[in-house]
Amino acid sequence: MCVVLWVLNVYFGDIISNYKNLATGLFLFAIGLFKKVIIADSFAKWANAGFGVVENNQFLNIFESWVTSLSYTFQLYFDFSGYCDMAVGLGLMFNIRLPINFNSPYKSLNITDFWRRWHITLGRFLKAYLYIPLGGNQNNAYKQSKIYDTLNKILTLRNLFIVAFISGVWHGAGFGFIIWGTLHGLAMLIHRIYMYILESFDLKDIQKEKFSPETLSNARFKMYFLESKFYKIACWFITFNFINITWVFFRAENVQGALNLLKGMFGIVWVEFPYDARLIPHFLNAIQGRNDTIVYLVFAFIVCLTFKNSIEYTQSFKVNKLNFVIAMFALYVPIIMLGLKPYEPFLYFNF
């Protein structure tokens, strides 16, 4: 029915008042289904194979280890992104706007920004019912103290760590989830302390263009370093790799399996370097890697870092023939594939 209405609208104009929501919803649902079945499930076989090896107390070489961790990182990304797109799309089909829950988290330049983009509704819930009741970032009980600002900073650090730790426990009671939450809590602390250090520089007068010798040097530091492409790329690189590494504890069935994979990733066990780049796929045999495995990883990076997300598509979506073709392709290819291979359940159905 949705397809019929879309075709009629493309050729004969609007025929129902909420048609754009219906068309946008169908488009998002199709894109979400494509992400799940075609992309996420493709990474699932390599992630499952790799984690299956290390969880049996065996080891992978450095290539297999990194492909395993990245495969799960992208499997979880496209699985959860597809799940959110399908939910938002279904809501729009019924003229219901569901809250946004996913906003390109792998574009984040720091761990705080990551949590503003990943599982947004969970973050809002924890902020409203845990972070703020704990005192948030200030406590008026300290207001008369001479070290009021310092005490509030300590309070903020404590509350950030507690919230991150609880988010790990919320996903599961296993040691892997606890370690994952603890690591994210520590990362939040480190980032906030780093921000406190930056705030200690007097940059207030920079916007007013009243430069003292000190503020002038700070302005130059901000303009030529903090705003530079090199700094932003470095921030992204550190953030993404931290997220990728911590997902290992999130995914592994046991802590020993996670440690075995990390040993392989950092070459602690053993390292193999092929003399020819074309031989790299053959070094992925233990995780059932193929010649297209590296292509999938490169494609995933490109999609995550350069493509529009569902929020942006929703805001700029137009009902036209091109989007109709894209939606039909994204809808029917996964449906066909579902009949040709085993079904992989959504990862976040477990939480």
Automatic annotation (TrEMBL):
Keywords, sorted A to Z: Acyltransferase, Cell membrane, Membrane, Transferase, Transmembrane, Transmembrane helix
MF (Gene Ontology): acyltransferase activity
Topology class, membrane: Multi-pass membrane protein
Transmembrane segments: 154-171, 230-250, 293-310, 322-340
Compartments it resides in: Cell membrane
GO cellular component: plasma membrane
This protein's record includes keyword Membrane: yes
Record has Acyltransferase as a keyword: yes
Any one Pfam family match given in the protein's UniProt record, by short name: MBOAT
Major place of residence: membrane
Superkingdom to which the source organism belongs: Bacteria
InterPro entries: Ac/AlaTfrase_AlgI/DltB, AlgI, MB_O-acyltransferase, MBOAT_fam
Family in the record: Belongs to the membrane-bound acyltransferase family.
Protein name according to UniProt: MBOAT family protein
